[in-house]
């Protein structure tokens, strides 16, 4: 199993229904035979995080917006301390289904929390380690809504859900996509084709870091 000089940190980002977990599985299938690889997720990549994820997703306990962000940040800090940083130090490739940009977009853009506070807390939780590469799966709010409905995910009313998703896609397009470490992928393309594109970029990056 190959390791790399410094390890590589990859995040997969996008709104719900954009195909993040499918892309993570494809990348895992293509890389895991050759490379020492950790595929993980936020929220819920650690034991502490699994509890936080349940609390965050169950929505049966009132959680204010600041507290919600701090719970995602708590999950992130533990994830970095327990999973991500040790793996990178061992020269592994780490692929995370969501990371800091989800907070920036969902809590910052979606819920109007202060972006600079989110950036500061994110960086603190991550010990200033930014992802080497972010795959942003771009999809329209309408298409994501359709996919989520097919998956029987509990949804708010169409108008409410679509309005929030529009905010999120705007957030990804303005805050995330323009950064140089971000590769935007067309989430409407065939999953194999999306995986091929992502794999080609990742392969190049791995070669540069061997
Ligand atoms: P996710 O694990 O992608 O959902 P799924 O259950 O479909 O696998 O994410 C769970 C939810 O958490 C998703 O709606 C996005 C949200 N989220 C934030 O709002 N902020 C964050 O920082 C993160 C990591 C997730």
Write the layout of secondary structure elements.
Blueprint lengths: L7 E6 L6 H12 L5 E5 L5 H12 L6 H25 L3 E5 L2 H11 L4 H11 L7 E6 L2 H10 L7 H19 L5 E5 L4 H18 L2
Parallel strand pairs: 1-3, 1-4, 2-3, 4-5
The structure holds thymidine-5'-diphosphate (TYD).
| Structural class category | alpha/beta
- The 3D shape can be described as globular
| Mean pLDDT over the full residue set | 95
Strand content: 5-15%
CATH architecture: 3-Layer(aba) Sandwich
Order of helices and strands: EHEHHEHHEHHEH
Any idea of the CATH class?
Answer: Alpha Beta
Helix tally equals 8
Helix content: 55-70%
List the main descriptive attributes of the protein structure presented here.
single chain; 5-stranded parallel sheet; 8 helices; Rossmann fold; alpha/beta; 210 residues; binds thymidine-5'-diphosphate
Structural account:
The chain has helices spanning 20-31, 47-58, 65-89, 100-110, 115-125, 141-150, 158-176, 191-208; strands at 8-13, 37-41, 93-97, 133-138, 182-186. It has 8 helices and 5 strands; from the N terminus they run βαβααβααβααβα. A 5-stranded parallel β-sheet has the order 2-3-1-4-5, with helices on both faces. It has one domain: 3-Layer(aba) Sandwich (Rossmann fold), CATH 3.40.50. α3 runs parallel beside α5. It is globular. Helix content is 56%, strand content 13%. With 210 residues, the chain is of the alpha/beta class. It binds thymidine-5'-diphosphate. Thymidine-5'-diphosphate binds at residues 16, 21, 41-43, 72, 98, 102-103, 106-107.
